[in-house]
Amino acid sequence: MIDLHTHTTCSDGTDTPRELVNKAIVQGIEVLGITDHDTISGWQEATQTLRGSLQLALGAEISCLTHDGVSVHMLGMLFDPNHQEMQKVLEETRDGRLPRMRKMIEKMRAGGMDISIEDVEEAMPVGATMGRPHLADALVSKKIVKSRDEAFIDLLHNDSPFYVSHAAPTPAEAIALIRRAGGVAVIAHPFASHRGQILKSEDFADLVLAGLNGIEVDHRDQNPDERGMLRVIAHELDLVITGSSDYHGTGKLNSLAENQTSREQWERLEAQSDARRVVRA
Question: Which of 13, 189, 241, 279 is an S-S bond match for 56, by CB 3.0 to 4.6 Å?
Answer without folding.
Answer: 279
